[in-house]
Amino acid sequence: MKQSPLQKLLVRQIGGNKFLRATGRWTKKAELAFNFPTIVDAVHTCLANGIKNVEFILRFEGDVRDQRIPWDVA
């Protein structure tokens, strides 16, 4: 079974409903958020910047709904 290509991968702050920008700052507008090329890049950015309590928002080509993966480093 072939997986649909990833269209969008954003980092969203849980509770604040803000999205991570390429500058490292947060925005309320999803369209201004940085679209990470891979989940590894998103995780690395969070680890390198001490970002916790987020979820990864993934949208695959052809999907109507976003998939959400909660992630928190204790």
Task: Please describe the structure with a list of short key phrases separated by commas or semicolons.
74 residues, alpha+beta, 5-stranded antiparallel sheet
Q: Care to describe what's here?
A:
With 74 residues, the protein is of the alpha+beta class. The chain has one domain. It is built from one helix and five strands. It has one helix at 39-48, and strands at residues 6-13, 18-20, 26-27, 54-60, 67-71. A five-stranded antiparallel β-sheet has the order 3-2-1-4-5, with no helix packed on it. The chain starts with 5 loop residues before the first strand and ends with a strand.
Give the proportion of residues in helices.
10-25%
Mean pLDDT: 91
Based on CA atoms alone, the radius of gyration comes out at 12 Å
- How far is it from the N-terminal to the C-terminal residue, by CA? 35 Å
The portion of residues forming beta strands comes to 25-35%
Largest sheet: 5 strands, antiparallel
Could you give the order of the helices and strands?
EEEHEE
Low-confidence stretches: none
Give the count of structural domains: 1
Shape field: globular
Overall SS class:
alpha+beta
